[in-house]
Amino acid sequence: MDSASLPPQEVYKVAVFKAEDGRLYRIYVDQPATSTVVIDLNNHHVLKKFQRFAEFGVLAREVAWLRALAGSGVVPALRAVEQSELKLRYVGEPVRQYNLPGNWSEQAEAILAELEAVKCSHNDIKCDNLTILDGRLHLIDFGWATGVGDIIPTTWPKGIGRQHRRDIHCFDDRRAIYAALRSAERDEVDRSILLT
Ligand SMILES: Nc1ncnc2c1ncn2[C@@H]1O[C@H](COP(=O)(O)OP(=O)(O)OP(=O)(O)O)[C@@H](O)[C@H]1O
Ligand SMILES: [Mg+2]
Q1: Average pLDDT of the residues in 154-174
Q2: Which residues surround ligand 2, an ion (CB under 5 A)?
Q3: Three-class SS state of 180
Q4: Ligand 1 probe mutation, 13, 37, 38, most atoms within 8 A of CB
Q5: Which residues pair with 28 in a beta bridge?
Q6: What structural domains does the chain harbor?
Q7: What pLDDT digit, counting tens, does each position of 104-137 carry?
């Protein structure tokens, strides 16, 4: 299964599963994304095809940070890079009240420590960029990540990280991860804000 077999020009997220009898199930997920994401549940990988914001270098930035954080255990392993598509290890479902682990603050601290170790500021931490696999919290979607303290170019979209940021282009990963996970705990995840 690859995203080339899906209708072109659309941006969405879809999960696919092939049963033992060969039947193919496709689950279209009610979740807008800025890239087309195909989740292959048999092979435990995700194909992420960048559709928008190529001019901002989102793919190269995501690749660079995933490599910097490889082995940290808190980001998906990068299995392949091909033109505008990444193959990532599947790291579970977006965090919500039903899958939030009891020790979430401890796991949030572990993520913040890994970011600090490589001097990375993610900039877009929100529940849809935090996933849970087997009770373990992961951070995904590094397209807008920068070095800590780097100036954000004024040309970047103004909606980045809007759920939990301090201000336009003013980010604080610690504040954002706690705000996001507390919103999951209260079952008040804000999914109303889209990047435009
Ligand atoms: N490695 C992964 N494992 C599990 N799910 C993933 C993975 N990568 C992406 N997803 C799913 O696909 C969705 C969109 O992926 P991602 O956030 O990387 O792309 P995006 O299009 O840049 O997002 P956004 O809509 O936040 O701009 C995620 O919210 C998540 O549900
Ligand atoms: Mg995302």
Answers
A1: 96
A2: 129, 141
A3: helix
A4: 37
A5: 14
A6: 3-89 (3.30.200), 93-185 (1.10.510)
A7: 999 999 999 999 999 999 999 999 999 999 999 9
**C-alpha distances in Å from residue 187, one per residue of 75, 106, 133, 163:** 24, 20, 19, 15
Phi-psi region of 168 (alpha: psi -120 to 50; beta: other; left: phi over 0): beta
Please tell me the distance from the alpha carbon of residue 154 to that of residue 141, in angstroms, as a whole number: 21
User: 17, 141, 144, 163: which to mutate for ligand 1, most atoms within 8 A of CB?
Assistant: 141
The predicted structure's pLDDT at residue 15: 84
Nearest alpha carbon, ligand 1 atom 26: 33
Classify 155 as helix, strand or coil: coil
Going from the C-alpha of 96 to that of each of 46, 67, 110, the distances in angstroms are: 20, 27, 19
**Which one of the ligands is nearest to 58 CA?**
1
Q: In degrees to the nearest 10, what's the CA dihedral of 103, 123, 86, 89?
A: 0
Instruction: Report pTM.
Output: 0.92
Cα torsion at 190, 180, 51, 2 (round to 10°)?
-100
